[in-house]
Amino acid sequence: MESCSSSCGCAAAAAHAEAKTLRWLLAINAVMFCVELLAGWLAESTGLIADSLDMFADAAVYGLALYAVGHAGQQLRAARLSGWLQLLLALGTLGEVLRRALFGSEPEPAPMVGIALLALVANLTCMMLLAKHREGGAHMKASWIFSTNDVLANLGVMLAGALVAWTGSNLPDLVIGTLIALLVAHGARRILGFAR
After folding, report:
1. How many domains does the chain have?
2. Of 4, 7, 13, 160, which is most buried with the most CB atoms under 10 A?
3. CB-based contacts of 76, cutoff 8 Å, min separation 6
């Protein structure tokens, strides 16, 4: 009986720690979604817009994962829904890249690099918060994948900004927007694999 209450207490403590981490992740990603979306729109950067949509997907996923904490039967369902949401946003991002490729854009490199650097700091913070939970349930594994993808996306936007400044072309921005969308789609596929 004592071991049962002890294990129940450990599970409750672990669930509480996960929930606290997820609240921080949700807040960080929600704020960065707003910042990057506005900056991406003003700077005409598909890379920043793609990254902002990825932040939005992450915030939604962290909200779903927060719901799944303590509801063992809902963890796979939350991970599955997260994967489908990521896939839809990847397709939406590819549509935006195509629209800007057809109708043109003039991305501004300085905001691209500066905002991507801010997002990189935010995502590295998220990874530090997640590090102790990354081998948890499917919902926490999904959260770790999202943060890892985000760091790669931020570095890509910074590189694209530098290339836009160097070449004067919008092509690097369109390429990084496409690559981020494909990275998000790949993350979605991995998450849906966990959810099976």
Report:
1. 1
2. 160
3. 138, 195
Residue 78 lies in a domain: yes
d(CA 117, CA 91): 25
80, 195 contact by CB (below 8 A): yes
In a 13 Å sphere around the CA of 146, the CA atoms on its Cβ side amount to 36
Q: Is residue 134 included in any domain, yes or no?
A: yes
| Model confidence band, residue 153 (pLDDT cutoffs 50, 70, 90) | confident
pLDDT tens digits, 61-85? 777 777 766 665 666 677 777 778 8
pLDDT digits (tens, 9 = 90+) for 110-131: 999 999 999 999 999 988 888 8
Closest to 71 (Cα-Cα) out of 149, 11, 119, 131 = 11
For 43, the domain range is: 18-195
pTM: 0.77
Distance CA 116, CA 98 (A): 22
